[in-house]
Amino acid sequence: MPPRGRPRNFDRETVLRKALDVFWRKGFEHASMADLTAAMGLNPPSLYAAFGSKEGLFREVLELYRRHGGSGIWEPVADSASAREAVAHVLRQSARAFSHEDRPPGCLIVLAAPQSEGASPAICEILREHRTRNISVLRERFERAAADGELAPETDCQALATYLATLQHGMSILARDGADGATLMSVADTGLAAWDALISRPPAPAPDPH
Amino acid sequence: MPPRGRPRNFDRETVLRKALDVFWRKGFEHASMADLTAAMGLNPPSLYAAFGSKEGLFREVLELYRRHGGSGIWEPVADSASAREAVAHVLRQSARAFSHEDRPPGCLIVLAAPQSEGASPAICEILREHRTRNISVLRERFERAAADGELAPETDCQALATYLATLQHGMSILARDGADGATLMSVADTGLAAWDALISRPPAPAPDPH
DNA sequence: CTTTTTATGTATCGATCAATAAAAAATAAC
DNA sequence: GTTATTTTTTATTGATCGATACATAAAAAG
Fold first, then answer.
1. Residue ranges making up the domain that contains B22
2. Which of strand C's nucleotides are less than 7 A from any protein C-beta?
3. Buried b (16+ CB within 10 A) or exposed e, A154-182
4. With pLDDT > 70 as the criterion, what percentage of chain B qualifies?
């Protein structure tokens, strides 16, 4: 059954996609409500009735981003066949996604609100948690790999995960600086080569391929 | 001979240091002139007479930053004894500098204006050039190492330099997220271990220590 | 001294910020 | 048709943005 009053004449997800594009290109602080209402085709009162505030709008945009926008980078990590495959996927998919023609360069979660002071503290905290979760996802996969025997038991999974997430976050800066897909992919490939070299267990007594 | 009119009653470098702190903590866009005048102890007309505009002030702050603030990271690269020593210095000095108690976390040049649209285009371009120069400094040192025999002649110095600068830029994000000195140093150490493993010339016919 | 020059303090400029008040319009319930 | 409910449009709100006009104060030059 339809609701009582006058129906909305805009689709919620459609206008959220427009808002995502603005936030992605300009960041949270510098995306003005005038920018957002113009891109979304809404008057301010309609926007505030639907999303509550600029912060509420950004929260819903973030959900959309994680559902459709920047996805495909971190989701497959937990179910990847190996730690190496997870690393390869994260780095290469980031290289592809961050240089996609139809999207703003880099990652919204890394670039939208990098200032610890000044920006909305709640927004900063949400984005920070997302970035921290990236590290945890990698660490948990590495710990499983250490238990499976893919990685040496004494591997510092936390350090490895932090290092790789740091590299991946840096790729957003590189993309925002205008790097093309080939440059980003060369960073990913170098990172992967470094992983292979690092993981080849030099301290182990003898490398056993079985 | 002293100048003709009424002398200034503030020291230029002293107030620039105050401005540096504000820009470093808040970024270019979110540091308001009210923040800056309050921190610098100046009235707006004095500030504008001395520095011309917010952009002009930031340019001078950047010069000060490169002279005294965030220095010690990139300067020694060109004169380092080896490429490995340059890499070790950049990563470890970044870990130390980005977690220094007396300074805001992370690097001003990476964090001050990450938005390509919305922020002042001139400021964005200046910061982008600084980041690009970081890559060039590393690349040139690596090319020299390849000529010296430290690195294999076929080494892709551009890819290596971009990869390392990307990691270092990511460390600013990590620091801004609240990582402590030990965490940053573990990223630096992991990156250095990856370098050592990567550079040990696996494709070469036979490792010759001479 | 008077004149010239530069810096300072007070008060504020128009523009833009995020967010709303109020009334008109469009639907369902009755 | 009438009422109740919700959305839309129009026109603003007070606050803050970066940047200045204006008058006064403090120095050197004559």
1. 12-67
2. 4-12, 16-22, 25-29
3. ebbbbbbbbbbbbbbbbbbbbbbbebeee
4. 93
